[in-house]
Design brief:
Length: 240
């Protein structure tokens, strides 16, 4: 039977993490979920306490620890790889802490696996009405490589993830895109035509056009061969 391991990297996500965990349990079937792993990269806010408390309430049997909080080195790639090593499901589902997948997301993922699609994501919708974000969201229904990003979440079979070598830990940012590039090379990527709702908090903080400019700059820098360290330095200076 197909089982999904949900892996969520967090760093200071006290404001949203409990809402996300509740959403995941309410919108999936227990029979489809192998475990839910939250991987903390060194939060200094209340995130760990919130997650621990939530899991204590929902791990009803001491013999069935389906929900776990894991500590890891900082960096999403490292955190997600750490979670994948503990995952027992044959399908991995990597999810950002401010992204909420659609109802029955688990069954939708398994349906794609049954059709032979070994990796993919959902469409994206920002929780913001700015026309550009609405257009960017609309474009994510298409298979074009330029319309992909980590906020759409990522499902992938455990075996394929291992074959690729997991997330490249040299990258502190852009790690999602590195993995997606490998999947497109292998022609192993599909887009599920259901909307995942993600936060526009960074756009609200920096301004839509300012942040979009910096994201495009990172993309172009990578296109022209910028190193992982150069991308991280740019991100730290203008986005973090």
């Amino acid at each position: 039977m197909n089982k999904i391991s949900i892996i969520i990297p967090i760093l200071d996500e006290a404001e949203s993490i409990e809402n996300l965990l509740t959403h995941l349990l309410e919108n999936s079937s227990k029979q489809n979920i192998a475990e839910l792993l939250v991987v903390d990269g060194g939060s200094t806010d209340d995130s760990r306490r919130i997650v621990s408390s939530f899991f204590q309430k929902n791990n009803h049997s001491p013999l069935e620890q389906r929900y776990s909080l894991i500590e890891s080195s900082k960096g999403r790639a490292k955190q997600m790889n750490t979670g994948s090593k503990l995952a027992t499901g044959n399908i991995l589902y990597f999810l950002h802490a401010d992204s909420f997948p659609p109802k029955n997301f688990d069954q939708l993922i398994i349906n794609e696996f049954d059709k032979g699609n070994l990796a993919g994501c959902f469409r994206l919708q920002f929780n913001h009405k700015h026309w550009w974000l609405r257009l960017a969201s609309w474009l994510t229904q298409f298979h074009w490589r330029a319309c992909r990003g980590g906020d759409q979440s990522q499902f992938i079979t455990n075996q394929l993830f291992e074959d690729i070598g997991g997330f490249d830990e040299n990258y502190t940012i852009y790690e999602d895109n590195i993995l997606i590039n490998e999947l497109y090379k292998r022609k192993q990527f599909t887009v599920i035509n259901k909307k995942l709702m993600t936060s526009a908090r960074r756009y609200e903080k920096h301004g839509v056009w300012t942040l979009q400019y910096h994201f495009w700059t990172v993309y172009i820098k990578k296109w022209f061969g910028a190193s992982a360290d150069e991308l991280h330095a740019y991100y730290q200076r203008y986005i973090a």
